[in-house]
Amino acid sequence: MKTSAIAAMGALAAGVSATPSMAPQQKRADITPVTVKGNAFFQGDKRFYIRGVDYQPGGSSKASDPIADADSCKRDVEKFKALGLNTIRVYTVDNSKDHDACMGYLADAGIYLALDVNSPNYSINRAKPARSYNKAYLQSVFATIDAFEKYDNTLLFFSGNEVINDDKSSECAPYVKATDRDMRSYINARKYRKIPVGYSAADVAENRLEMANYMNCGPDGARSDFFAFNDYAWCDPDKTSSDWEQKAKNFSSYSIPLFLSEYGCNKNTRTFNAVSGLYGDSMASVYSGGLVYEYSEEGSDYGLVKIDDGKVTEKDDFAALKKALAGTPSPSGDGGYKSSGEASKCPTKSDHWNVDLKDDELPAQPDGVKDFFDNGAGKAPGLTGGSQDSGSDKVETAGAADGAVTTGASTTSSGASASGSGSAAAGSLKAPSFAAAPLVASMVVVASTLFGASML
User: Where in this protein does the record put region Disordered (predicted)?
Assistant: First the structure.
C-alpha cells in the first residue's frame, strides 16, 4: 500500500486559560505515564504494547478536532472500550480549545493518546521544507505540547506524518528530524515530563529503513525517542506475512521503540489476522504494537464504524477487530525487549535517499526559538492562520545537536550556514483523504501541495 500524504496535524494551547473543565469527577482509572526503556515502552514496570485505532471523524473534508467535542468523545470512548483498546491516535486538534473532558473520559477508560502536533496550515510542506520550518511553525507545535503535557495519558507526540512519500521528498528528512529535536528540547527546557517524541513514516519500501535509521542516528540530542510507520502489506485471509517477518529481521537490532502507526489492509474481507502476528511472541522483541486504520468510515472503506447525524453504527470490521484483539493478548513478561542498544548508522545518499547534509548536521533552529524555551510558546493559533510561508528558502545549518536542550537548561544554537533551496517539486505531491487510506492515494493530489506531508 502506497503513500498517504498525511501531514500529522495538531496544535494545542499553552498558557491560555481554558473554560472550566467538563471532565467527569469520578475516580480516574490508574493511568501511569508511559516511558521508554531500551527499544520498548513501559507502563511503570510493565511492558506497554499499543493496541489502538486511528481516530479522526470527518477526515480531511474539514479540519476539525475530535477530542474537543465532549459529547462525541464520550460516545466513542464506549466503542473504544468495547474493542479493548488502550490507545487512540488523533491527527489534528484545535489548540485554541479545551480538551479536559475528553482526556478525562479516555483516562477513565485506561486509554492513552498518540497525538500528531501539526495541522494543515502549520506543518512541514514537502514542496518547500526550508521555508515551512520556521519560528511560527514551531510556536504552534510547542503550544500543542504545552496543552497536552499535563495529561498523564498523553502517550507520545508525532513530530511528522508521511512527510517523505517518495525518493525525492526524502530531502525533507532533515527538517522532520530538526522538528523532532526541537520538540524534545522544548520539553526538556520547560521541565515537562519526558513524553516520547518520534515520527510516523509512509508505507514506502524504497526508503522506509533509511528513514528509520536516520531518525535514530547521530548524537543523542538529535535522535528520536521512537519510530513508527504505516504498513498495509499483511492482507487477509493470509495467516502469515513473509513481508512482516522480513521487516522484523531488518529491525532486529533497532534500539528505540518501533510500532505501526497505521495498519489494516482492506483488499479483502478483513478478519485482522495481522493482529496475531503483531502481538505474537515472534514480533514482540521488535515491535510495540500498532494502530488500526481507522475508526470512522470516511469514504475509503477502512472505517470500523459509520457515523451519521451523531449516531454510530458498527460495521462488520468492528466485530472482526474486536474478536482478533480479544483472542490475542499481549505477550507476557517483557517480550524479550532490548534494554540497551547502539544508535543506527546514518544512511548515505542514494537514488532513494536524497539528503546532502552530513551525519552531524541539521537545519539550525530559527531565530527566536530560544525565547520559547525560556518563556513558553504563548497563545496557540488554533486552526486559523498559517506558517508555511513564514520562513526563508535559505538553508541555515548547524551541528545536529546544536540548540538541543538535554538537561532542562537552554543552550545556544551555533554552527555554519549554507545556502540552498529546500523546495521539492509540487508536481510530485500526492495526498489522499484524511489519514490517508493507502488504496485511495491516487484520488487526492491537491491537498499535499497545501499540507506537505499531511494528515489525511
Answer: 324-427
